[in-house]
Amino acid sequence: MTSSFKVMVVDLGKNKSSLEYFDARREWIGGSGLAAGLFSHFGLPGEDAFHPDQPLILAIGPLTGYFPLMSKTIMGFMSPYNNQYAESHGGGRSALALKFAGYDALVVRGKAEKPTCIGLGSREVHIQDVHFLKGMDIFKTGKKMRSLKPTNPGHRSILRIGPAGENLVRYACVNVDTYRHFGRMGSGAVMGAKNLKGIILSGDSHVDLDPDLSKEYNKVYKDIYNTVVQSGAMRKYHDLGTPENILPLNELQALPWRNMQSTYDENAGGISGEKFGQDQLLRQVACAGCPVGCIHIGLLRERFGQEHEYLYRQVSYDYEPIFGMGTMLGVDTAPGVLTLLEDVEKMGLDAISAGVALAWATEALQKKIITREHTLTDLEFGNVQAYREALDHLTRQPNEFYQALAGGTMKAAEKYGGEDFACVLGQEMAGYATGENYFVSQALGFRHSHLDTGAYGLDQEQDSRNIDKAIEYMQDQEDYRVLMCSMVGCLFARKAYPKENILRALNSLGYDYTQEELDACVEKIKHHRWALKFRTGFKPEDVKIPSRFKEITTWKGKTDPEYMDKLKSKYQEVLREMASAHEKRQGENQ
């Protein structure tokens, strides 16, 4: 274990790269902490997200390459969606490729003159002109990039954007190794603004382990590995995967349907995890360094000839994409969902935000707030072909309506009307209509993500409408998740990595933390991230929870708007106090 982070900095504007070292490993740990630390060093808090010198940061953690399910990479950036500091988390081979290239982080600054690809290995950096990839979809781009330098197919990760990123859709994503993504908050648009079409990470080196540590390391590794593969703790993720959530949430009246006009539908079985597993599942694959295999690949057939002739395509699916391209749009057949997911994939759109945006547009058209002149197609819940056309319009932005919608659902609603039924909680909602705690949690969460605190779980407890309990729950959950995201671990692996296992894993590699020291580091990282978010413009009182969230009915009955408003007021007070205290401490230490 070295005391410094090894960071490659690439400046696209100057066509140069440099290796830098940051001596704060114990303080920033890695992953989420490292990304926030690097943004503090390189970022421009007062400038627009598309300013050429805003950094795009990839960061991995101290357990990457050493332990199972430590397979994620943090992407830190100024979000074009809300012009605030943001994170997105991606898997695939990206973390191990960066680790085996010998780096803790990659920082990209500047803007290239032409579409460009960065190739990074342990011994070389390539900044390559790829103007011939301009406008290509995700799949074609991936095929072309496989022939670019560095070529090391066994240990390589390919990140790329599609037309949505090039066209600066504010929720364009970055595709990683075909089936994973940096999905939320517009990282694809940040790459597009930099004329950065793709990144190739080549893990062409190796990592060492101190022989004196091998005995304890082997013991800890075996304990964690056995929990992952033998205890049954992660069986769900391999078997049906997260789509297993469809039927239980539907029965709880907590599954958003048709722009959350309903929270239950009798046809949910047509897109359930069980239905996908029985009729569509082709295979399960895994991120590098993961023995679970939670990535479910569906087989999509398209008939093109009278004599039963078919094209076959492979499309990944998970619960959230099924929500975005299925329930939210009223699409209740598995082939219909896969068809839309393939289009989303090609374009490089975030499936959740795109689905929620089109669901709002469909209801707005129903209510005659907008017209077909705006939508250019007859949007109707359940109409797969209409949504295929709309996804293309959303990507290409042929008129002012789609230009507004490409900026976010609420941006379009503010311009055209319909704010009360825009399903936006800081960003387009995730697929949990569970109740007040979750709605407040996503609206005010650091990433505006359902994974910030997992408060949908709290909603399902009996004593869930208790403000003090809710605040304590969300704070405790955020503490743990900041720790995991600084490692950087898959959040599905929570049962395999309680705090004591994370501490054992770190110390088996020579980090020598006490639990108190590690807790203090996590607390500082959490506070620093929030200070960054406030410094870049976050005002929690400006985040509105639309009326639609105050009108729904779940298994518990009607939403309680009074409780939700009080919880939001209390939570935003806690967040502001935390960020202010951190800024004060920083000022005193300077």
TrEMBL record:
SMART domains: AFOR_N. Keywords: 4Fe-4S, Iron, Iron-sulfur, Metal-binding, Oxidoreductase. Its EC number is 1.2.7.5. GO terms for molecular function: 4 iron, 4 sulfur cluster binding; aldehyde ferredoxin oxidoreductase activity; electron transfer activity; metal ion binding. It is an enzyme of class 1 (oxidoreductase). Pfam families: AFOR_C, AFOR_N. InterPro entries: Ald_Fedxn_OxRdtase_dom2 (IPR013984), Ald_Fedxn_OxRdtase_dom3 (IPR013985), Ald_Fedxn_OxRdtase_N (IPR013983), Ald_Fedxn_OxRdtase_N_sf (IPR036503), OxRdtase_Ald_Fedxn_C (IPR001203), Tungsten_al_ferr_oxy-like_C (IPR036021), W-dependent_AOR (IPR051919). Residues 5-205 form the Aldehyde ferredoxin oxidoreductase N-terminal domain. Its cofactor is [4Fe-4S] cluster; tungstopterin. It comes from the Bacteria. Belongs to the AOR/FOR family. This is Aldehyde ferredoxin oxidoreductase. The lineage of its organism: Bacteria, Pseudomonadati, Thermodesulfobacteriota, Desulfovibrionia, Desulfovibrionales.
